[in-house]
Amino acid sequence: MNALFFGSLIVYFLATVLQFAALVFKKEGLGRIAWLAFLAAFCAHTLYIVIRGVVAHRLPLSNQFEFATAFSWGVSLLLVILRIRLKADWLSAVVMPMSFFILSYAALQPRTVTDLMPALRSGWFGFHIGSAVISYAAFVVAGCVALRYLLISRKNRKEDAFKLEQMDFLSYRMIALGILMLTVTILTGAFWAEQAWGAFWTWDPKEVWALITWIIYVVYLHLRLRGKKKGLFMAWYALISVPVVLFTFAGVNTLMSGLHSYG
Length: 263
Hints:
Layout: H1 2-25, H2 28-56, H3 64-86, H4 92-107, H5 124-153, H6 161-197, H7 205-225, H8 232-255
Helix pairs in contact: 1-2, 1-4, 2-3, 3-4, 3-5, 5-6, 5-8, 6-7, 7-8
């Protein structure tokens, strides 16, 4: 299992380096090698999660290490889907590093397989935490797309106008997916909390920051749909919102104690 985990981490790193080299030196061959390496890392990453789940006899989502590992996998999964469906090769340079960095964070956490805590033994477990994984991954990918948008828009070339419009729309779609899944996370968490602790909402730090994250991205949707805002402003908004997601993911557990401290 350790060989699979660290093998995935190393190959993600190599894929990221090769992708940057392909971008800098404009070598399509390097880009293809980087993509194949990334796919190999993703397969090993997937196999690791499956084996850990079999060994633990549960979904491997119960602690910070497992959630971070799944979070990195979710980012990688979205990249694979978007590249295959949209032929969006340009996504690799901005999304590959995030898969690597999030998995690197996971590597710093205790990797011991433990039994599920009594509070987590619920039918809501998979829905609540699984939807959070997809939500966070979608927000991060949206931020990566926004970063790419900002880098290309600086060149101010007319031939990039259509590409920028596609990026703007893709970032919006990822945020819409993220909000949907975060809504599922909050609602399932509320029902679960009522069963486990006797209250739908306890103002636990994790709950509060999940709500803050939800509000920030709902404002994005409001500005996009009702305010008709697009382009540069929304790209900056999507990018600047990512640190809030990362704080909700890691900062809350590190700096604040609460009912979700085990997660």
